Amino acid sequence: MRPSEQNLQPLLLTPGPTPVPLPVREALASPLIHHRTDEYRSIFRTVSGSLQEVFRTGNPIFTLASSGTGAMETGIINFLSPGDKILVLACGKFSERFLEIAKAYGIECDCLRIPYGEAADPGAVEKQLTLASYRAVYTALCETSTGVLNDVRSIGRLVARTDAIFVVDAISGLLADPLETDDWNVDVAIGASQKALMLPPGAAFLAVSPKAWAAAERGRLPRYYFDLRRYRKDFENFDTPFTPAISIICALAKSLELILKEGVEAQWGRCASLAGMTRQVLDGWGLKMFPKRPSNAMTAVCLPEGVDGNLLLKILKKEYGVFMAGGQGNGLKGRILRIGHMGAVREKDLLRGFDGLSKVLAQLGQPVPGGFPEVLEVTG
Amino acid sequence: MRPSEQNLQPLLLTPGPTPVPLPVREALASPLIHHRTDEYRSIFRTVSGSLQEVFRTGNPIFTLASSGTGAMETGIINFLSPGDKILVLACGKFSERFLEIAKAYGIECDCLRIPYGEAADPGAVEKQLTLASYRAVYTALCETSTGVLNDVRSIGRLVARTDAIFVVDAISGLLADPLETDDWNVDVAIGASQKALMLPPGAAFLAVSPKAWAAAERGRLPRYYFDLRRYRKDFENFDTPFTPAISIICALAKSLELILKEGVEAQWGRCASLAGMTRQVLDGWGLKMFPKRPSNAMTAVCLPEGVDGNLLLKILKKEYGVFMAGGQGNGLKGRILRIGHMGAVREKDLLRGFDGLSKVLAQLGQPVPGGFPEVLEVTG
Predict the structure, then answer these.
(1) Chain B: nearest CA to A305, how far in angstroms?
(2) A334 near B CB under 8 A
(3) Contact criterion met (CB below 8 Å) for B376 and B50
(4) Please, what sign has the CA dihedral across residues A94, A147, A343, A368?
(5) How far is Cα B145 from Cα B300, in angstroms, rounded to an integer?
(6) What is the mean pLDDT of residues A31-49?
(7) Where are the domains of chain A?
(8) What DSSP element (H or E) covers A11?
(9) Given this model, what pLDDT does residue A377 score?
(10) Among A66, A87, A372, B12, which has the minimal tally of Cβ within 10 Å of its Cβ?
(11) What is the DSSP pairing of strand B336-340 with strand B298-302?
């Protein structure tokens, strides 16, 4: 099939931002309401409750007007003091960001460096936790730069035995990979709007446990806009200390309605099934998975030797209207391909993506072995 | 005239957020694009150039995914070091926020406390500047909590003679009150999306002068998400270090197109004319202006003795669909009324607001002297 007019409608298959469904875009375009009103507070209250279902937590969720990195910084500066020691389980560009932020604030960091494409080994974490006393342990659920899924459940069990709090960047993993914030002993779980929540970027979320609040009482790092104490105080009235990202929160009410109608487990199931389908196709093409323990939010795959990943992405975008992502950091740029299949992405979107991808690979002299599988012929 | 169905369409006459015009809302609802693309960079480049016209500056404008307070914090933590001394010209809740932020970071603050409703006196500032050596001077163009307009031009001239940088919160004043960032020696001018830029909240802007950059080189306060050095580096490629508020930036391209088509001076002129009309009406009703030196972004007026301002706002909203704002801080709550007339607000909107307001005042036993002026009869 040749690219048609319809197919050139841009299709986001990146691991965030993700496509925003029409009803959510319509909500974004509604006339703006004022945030210091009962109407807004009622929406914010509903949204906050629904987010608790998504995070699987009974703890309050705090909402920031910022992108995910702002929430990661919030997860550091509220719970620590100068000279405190933390452990970072760094397996890619985003979990490494915790290190960068902590260092900017004079925090002493031990780092368990995990080779890109691998997940943190709970055994190694267990050993490391006996070597020093940490105030907090940081890692990611899905490491977006490599597509790896960490075993948050096992690591949470280990951290829970210590005085450290466990802070997890669940920005790209949320709603795609199972996460049981409370049951898995995650003290601070971080999310953002532009992934499986199907919204534009601009709002970020933190679920905060009582153990984390106890750490916050001791915290002496300077903070203002990201000071969770202010958010906790105003949250009693379903208010925020600073002007919230009103349009995104109102649209979030709509996307959460869609999400909870389907159900959280059903979302996990759908992402797992799309991930399985993606891997079956790419495997059939002889492409090697990059992560050893892959997330369901996205698939990261090694490109065949000799294929220029940047050129591939450029052609895919220009000729087929399909946006996938390349590698980030540590020499991965141009070498791996990352395909998002969370949020509003459906099978037909992936089929369109594979169709374009197979053709670009052929164009670049790497025809897909066995051609494009018949079952995946795009018929629509 | 009785409130009609049409009139109950909510009307935002608050000093932010302000109404978002339909073409801008349509842009907000466009399919999301990815931010690491030439398409987005081209939009961001155009937007950044247009913002320079709005700020009247040749200096680059940095864009944050945050609300205005995040940019105010950015305006402190990038340019100072622990123990540095600053001068804050505090004339209301928002200029006082600079004090709160600075104190959270261990900055030594001298404060020129100006009675609410008054503007900073350049003579007093001149004297204060001889008493100590400051790293920076902070104030607001329009102090949103009182509706006062500071004489930024005169103060800028005084600060320019010293080593201090001059940081101005122009969040509500931008595009409503004249501001010549470069000519008036403003080193850091701060704006946000939800005022005269006619957008939802979620993006904030800083115009940064070379003098401010020199201060930033010395700055030793901890920062990451708000670290302008990161933004400056990425701005070379019209990129941002962290995920931007994509939908707001794309809609900003549309609102800036509308704004620059009309022209910056024309916007100032329209706000001045709407402010004049508002004051004529309220004056005719015998209501006293609250600020001595009023901004054109908004009108703050004293309520008649015995009128419960909170009740008034409630009825106005419920029965007429009109949102105005009450007082903030320092015992002003319930005592003053603030009416926004910046951005997309037009004469007909204000007429609808006055119509509702006059009726609610009558309901509360304070009929408008001489009734509702005939010329303002709402006919549409």
Answers:
(1) 25
(2) no
(3) no
(4) positive
(5) 9
(6) 96
(7) 6-20+264-376, 22-261
(8) strand A11-12
(9) 45
(10) A372
(11) antiparallel
Nearest chain A residue (CA) to B71: A225
Instruction: Residue window 217-236, chain B: list those with CB within 8 Å of chain A.
Output: 221-227
B12/A34 touch (CB, cutoff 8 Å), yes or no: yes
A308: tokens are: 């220029």
Asked if the bond preceding B294 is cis, omega within 30° of 0, the reply is: no
ipTM: 0.95
Give the A window 144-183 contacts with B, CB below 8 Å: none
Indicate the pTM of the whole model: 0.96
Closest CA to B247 of A198, A253, A46, A144: A198
Taken in order B48, B50, B51, B56, the sign of the CA dihedral is positive
Give the CATH number of domain B22-261: 3.40.640.10
Question: A19 CB near a chain B CB, below 8 Å?
Answer: yes
Task: Judge: A317–B37 Cβ closer than 8 Å, yes or no.
Answer: yes
pLDDT at A79 over 60: yes
Residues composing chain B? 380
Half-sphere exposure in the Cβ direction for A326 (13 Å, CA): 21
Residues of B in contact with A12 (CB under 8 A): 32-34
Q: Do A67 and B69 touch (CB under 8 A)?
A: no
A151-165, A365-379, B80-94, B201-215, range with the lowest pLDDT = A365-379
- Taking only the tens place, the pLDDT of each residue in A334-349 is 899 999 999 999 999 9
Tell me the C-alpha to C-alpha distance, in Å, between residue B185 and each of B56, B87, B106, B157: 11, 16, 27, 6
Contact B190, B167 (CB under 8 A): yes
Angle between helix axes A93-104 and A68-77 (nearest 10 degrees) is 50
* Contact between chains at B73 and A14 (C-beta distance less than 8 A): no
- Alpha carbon of A25: minimum distance to chain B alpha carbons (Å): 5
**What is the spatial distance between Cα B106 and Cα A222, in angstroms, rounded to a whole number?**
8
Do the strands B108-113 and B142-143 form a parallel or antiparallel pair, or are they unpaired? unpaired
- Choose among A236, A238, A255: nearest CA to A247: A255
Q: Give every residue of chain B whose pLDDT is below 70, as ranges.
A: 1-7, 370-380
The structure tokens listed for A144 are 């977006």
In 3D, which of A332, A334, A380, A330 has the Cα closest to residue A355?
A380
Judge whether B19 is closer than 8 Å to chain A, CB to CB.
yes
Those residues whose C-beta lies under 8 Å from the C-beta of residue B273, and which sit 6 or more positions away, are none
Pairing of strands A142-143, A322-323: unpaired
CA distances from B48 to A78, B64, B147, B191, B238 (A): 33, 12, 28, 13, 9
As a whole number of angstroms, the distance between CA A126 and CA A139 comes to 14
| Closest of A25, A243, A292 to residue B14, by C-alpha | A243
Residue A65 has its nearest CB partner, among B35, B67, B323, at B67
For the domain B6-20+263-376, what is the CATH code? 3.90.1150.10
Q: Does A1 touch chain B (CB under 8 A)?
A: no
DSSP string covering B110-154: EEEE--TT-PPPHHHHHHHHHHS--SEEEEESEETTTTEE--HHH
Q: In this structure, what token pair is assigned to residue B303?
A: 């309520």
Check CB contact of B299 with chain A, cutoff 8 Å: no
Are the Cβ atoms of A245 and B201 closer than 8 angstroms?
yes
| Rounded-to-integer distance, Cα A3 and Cα A1, Å | 6
How confident is the model over A227-248, as pLDDT tens digits? 999 999 999 999 999 999 999 9
Interior angle at CA B226, CA B141 and CA A37, nearest 5:
60
